[in-house]
Write the structure tokens for this entry.
Amino acid sequence: GGEEVVAGRLVLDLATRQVRYEDVRVRLTQREAELLALLMRSANRPVARGDLFDRLWAAQGGASLNVVDVYVGYLRGKLGEVTRRGGPAIATVRGRGFMLELAGQPS
């Protein structure tokens, strides 16, 4: 495999864009994987919506800030089974942005 990003027991393989959590496997799009990697690298710390936008979308032009919310929604859908099993969830932090919460680990 290529580079892996690890947060708790959640593992993202950037080469295959596959997320693993215990026996759950989820395939992501390139952009979803990039977004999740940013959130995983800052696990339990909020990442500002504007920062996520600047890192992933600003260079393209034509996108608006709410594209971040749309992709967070996609990720929440795809990670639903992970979250139901007690794995990480993407929390909205009011006025701050988004945060990958590692379940059972104090932030």
Observations:
- The chain is about 35% helix and 25% strand.
- Helices lie at 30-41, 49-56, 66-78, 80-84.
